[in-house]
Design goal:
Layout: H1 6-13, H2 15-37, E1 43-45, H3 46-55, H4 65-75, E2 82-84, H5 85-103, H6 107-119, H7 136-142, H8 151-154
Antiparallel strand pairs: 1-2
Helix pairs in contact: 2-6, 4-5, 5-6
Length: 173
């Protein structure tokens, strides 16, 4: 085991320099994630931002969707409903004020924690079934090979009608 020298103690104890260096790398990763969550690739809308914050699990008791709305409208330019990545970084500063209350960190570390959680988030697409999922009931009911009884004679193996009339029901009373 190495011995702790004065220089090592200074490096371990001075986390602000390490934090500043990591924030620059984190901004690059955050920029890539920004492109994943935005449909237009260089700007992000309020809806996309809310989905991103939800998927990153940064919404809490104090930093809720209403605070995201208010902060977004403070930053966006007039006549647009989107913000660029540069404006997004300013938006994160506004969001950090409420995020501090949820995490009990100081502002600088809360900003780093917020950026980290947003940068490692993966988009979750809701209400979109995977491509290999089929709806069983519809396939089963429209498959002519599975027909039984008199309907077996009405349709061909390919599912097309043969031209025969469907059987009629008669009331014998």
């Amino acid at each position: 085991m190495g011995e702790m020298t004065g220089q090592n103690v200074k490096q371990c104890g001075d986390s602000s320099d390490v934090l500043e260096a990591n924030l620059e790398n984190l901004n690059d990763v955050l920029h890539e994630t920004f492109h994943k969550f935005s449909n237009r690739r260089n700007v992000i809308s309020l809806t996309e931002l809310k989905h991103w914050c939800t998927d990153a699990a940064v919404i809490g008791k104090h930093m809720n969707q209403t605070h995201i709305d208010v902060s977004f409208y403070k930053i966006k330019k007039k006549g647009t409903n989107v913000v660029t990545f540069k404006d997004f970084l300013l938006l994160l500063d506004l969001l950090t004020v409420k995020y501090v209350d949820d995490t009990w960190l100081d502002k600088k570390h809360a900003l780093a924690h917020l950026k980290f959680k947003l940068s490692v988030a993966v988009p979750v697409f809701k209400n979109i079934p995977p491509p290999d999922v089929t709806i069983g009931a519809v396939d089963r009911l429209t498959d002519a090979k599975l027909f039984t009884g008199t309907f077996k004679h009405v349709f061909s193996d390919m599912g097309a009608e043969r031209g025969k009339k469907r059987p009629q029901r008669y009331n014998l009373l």
